[in-house]
Specification:
SDR_fam, alpha/beta, globular, 7-stranded parallel β-sheet, single chain, Rossmann fold
Length: about 240
């Protein structure tokens, strides 16, 4: 039975694909974004393509002190929440600019974790709900090419794992989705291997299926599970000599 989806990160390509998949299934969509004007374009698309019922909400994932009051102000508690917030940042800049590094880590870990933690308490009190956090394979092991972004996603992955463990008997599902490379505006300009690179629509389908009971930790392209298992198994003396 269709319900209400709260999508956090509504201006991202992945977020829009997730919302579209839920709209296809007849769900009501609440789009939360720092810039509602940008999110309006996605809302209009959902209405035009899927005749979806769509609401727009302003939420800045870095304004953590506002989360509790923001949740209290929702018209109703959603059935599912998907957090599609992410910022790749610039690794080179992050190495010399602590402010930039902090922004990347707060966007990928601190803000999403604190928000989902508050939502989890409300879901647990109700005894139902699904929480989906879109993390990244970059969090499976730190690599020199993107370890600031990877550190944020590693923290988010660990948070979701602990939340899932704590709420296992509460009636609340907690799912971690790891897309790997995806063709989006965030990755534009990067050379991406075709076999390992998905489309936003693949992520949308994976999120929808997982939230309905299709897994706890989902690699959107299954080959990533093997790839990251191999990378994680490389001994540290060897790993630190690799250019990854």
């Amino acid at each position: 039975m269709a319900g209400t989806l709260l999508l956090v990160g509504a201006t991202s390509d992945i977020g829009h694909a997730v919302a579209a998949r839920y709209a296809q299934a007849g769900w009501r969509i609440l789009l939360a974004a720092r810039d509602p004007e940008r999110a309006q374009r996605n809302a209009d698309d959902l209405v035009a393509r899927h005749r979806a019922e769509v609401g727009l909400l302003r939420l800045d994932i870095l304004e953590t002190d506002s989360f509790a009051a923001w949740l209290d102000g929702l018209p109703a508690l959603p059935d599912t929440v998907v957090c599609a917030v992410g910022e790749l940042g610039d690794q080179g800049r992050a190495e010399v600019d602590p402010t930039h590094a902090e922004g990347v880590m707060r966007t990928n870990f601190l803000g999403p974790s604190l928000l989902l933690g508050l939502i989890a308490e409300r879901f647990a009190a109700r005894g139902s709900g699904a929480i989906v956090g879109i993390s990244s394979v970059a969090g499976d092991r730190g690599r020199g090419s993107n370890y600031v972004y990877g550190a944020g996603k590693a923290g988010f992955t660990a948070f979701l794992s602990g939340l899932r463990n704590r709420l296992a008997k509460s009636g609340v599902r907690v799912v971690t989705v790891k897309p790997g490379f995806v063709r989006t505006r965030m990755t534009r300009g990067l050379r991406l291997p075709p076999l390992l690179t998905g489309e936003p629509s693949e992520v949308g389908q994976a999120v929808y299926a997982a939230a309905q009971g299709g897994g706890d930790v989902v690699y959107v392209r299954k080959i990533w599970r093997l790839v990251m298992a191999v990378i994680a198994a490389i001994p540290e003396p060897v790993f630190k000599r690799l250019n990854l």
